[in-house]
Amino acid sequence: MAGRKDVHTLIIGAGTSGLLVAQGLKKAGLPFTIFEQETLSTYQTRPREWGMTLHWGSSHISKCLPPSLVDRMPETYADPSLSPDAVAGLPVYNGKTGELIMEMKAEKPCRVSRRKLRNLFKEGLDIEYGKELVGMREEGGKVRCVFRDGTESVGDVVVGCDGARSKARECICGSDAAELTTVPLTMFNFTEKFEKEQALVLRERNPLFITSIHPDHGTMFWISIQDVPDPDKPETWTFQLLMSWVNNALPEDENNQEGRMKFFKKRAEEYAEPWRSAGRWVKPDTKIPMDPGTYWEKAAPWDSRGGKMTLCGDAAHPMTPHRGQGLNNALQDSSKFVSAMEEVASGSKTLAEAVAAYDKEVLERGLLEMQVSLKQTLFIHNWETLMESPMVKMGMHQARKEEGEAASQGLAKE
User: Which residues form a coiled coil (predicted)?
Assistant: First the structure.
């Protein structure tokens, strides 16, 4: 095309956002190279797997994926046999009595598998595996990325899509400014299969997900469907279980498999059905990892070096998970970045102008949602503040500016 300027993008990270950026650039006919620090083998065999809630962000997928892959999106669903409008939201129960408190509304929510989503998004892409970023620098109007294996790559712009603990963010902002803040939150997040009748019981109230908050100690106990390889064989279904609470993390000498299982089983006994039985049915040898909650409290405008370096997805706005917004914002970031590169290619904006506009929108939206999600995390784990939490006030819809301001004020009072 006459006057077209093809900007070569270096994509760091082959997670959901990085893959979607690559697909969008490929669809637009723009050059890119995508790097993943995992090897081809470990990329496919990571032991941990979990689901994500896809709702308002689904509208950004078709911008980047070719129609043939958009049509196959049901392959990524936890239960492909469910229609996208099967549920209207997430039911929330009193964990002690089993009474329904409310339903957190969402826009056609569905659960997608992180692994299935990545496998669909990477189709047709040439990914360079085993490329761990160690540094990047400007070089004669370009940007050079350096990897631990000694290789280097030069492009016009680099976009860090390498997750919450992003090395790209550290390279752009400096290690201190890029540092994450740990929230006083503890999470057990794992998957389990159950016997046929047990699996049926766990999906009786909602085919996708249910959660409960225990009024005595504010612990949240979440159960969702993770994988349904055969709808007619419940014994083949995989569920995701998440138990989380604020403050009072396990003592160091109990933070081991035996201690975590003992704590989980004991606390599950305090719940109403079906959470109590779910806890009893978890096999003694099931691995229970323990994770903290983090977010980028120091997030501030970063120096893009004239549009040569930027961030996308969790690298740009890592947030706590209790409002289900991480995936949806990452999808919007990916779509926005591709649009920015199309503007550069068409000549309607310079690289510096396009990336500056992209950065401003991503940061403003990310700051807003990090605050709202943090308020959600802290408020739902306290029975006294539960009814003031964002899930009660606004459901799962995309946060608006005034809601972010309200969240900040609410956190200041805590």
Answer: none
Of 107, 124, 117, the C-alpha closest to 80 is 117
Per-domain boundaries in the chain: 9-74+114-181+295-413, 182-294
Residue 292 corresponds to which amino acid? P
Q: Give the Cα separation of 76 and 78 in Å (integer).
A: 7
Record: fold of 9-74+114-181+295-413: FAD/NAD(P)-binding domain (3.50.50)
Question: Within the chain, which residues score under 70 in pLDDT?
Answer: 1-4, 47, 404-414
CA distances from 162 to 278, 310, 369, 379 (A): 34, 12, 19, 29
CA atoms within 13 A on the CB side of 255: 12
Quick: pLDDT tens for 106-158: 878 889 999 999 999 999 999 999 999 999 999 989 999 999 999 999 999 99
**DSSP three-state, residue 2:** coil
Q: Among 98, 274, 278, which residue's Cα sits nearest to residue 188?
A: 278
Strands (E) located in 125-262: 127-129, 133-139, 142-147, 152-155, 157-160, 181-193, 209-213, 220-227, 238-246
The pair of three-digit structure tokens given for residue 318, joined into one six-digit string: 């890592």
Predicted TM-score of the model (pTM): 0.94
Q: 337-351: buried (b, 16+ CB within 10 Å) or exposed (e) per residue?
A: bbbbbbbbbeeebeb
Q: Residue 304 gets which letter from DSSP? A: -
Q: Can you give the pLDDT at residue 405?
A: 67
To the nearest 10 degrees (0 to 180), the angle between helices 326-346 and 351-380 is 170
What letter does residue 224 receive in the DSSP assignment? E
CATH architecture of the domain 182-294 equals 2-Layer Sandwich (3.30)
Alpha-carbon distance 145 to 276, whole Å? 51
Report how far residue 122's alpha carbon sits from residue 44's, in angstroms, rounded to the nearest whole number: 12
- Location of structure tokens 């599950």: 268
**How far, in Å, CA of 115 to CA of 268, rounded?**
28
SS3 call for 381: coil
What is the Cα–Cα distance from 88 to 96, expressed in whole angstroms? 24
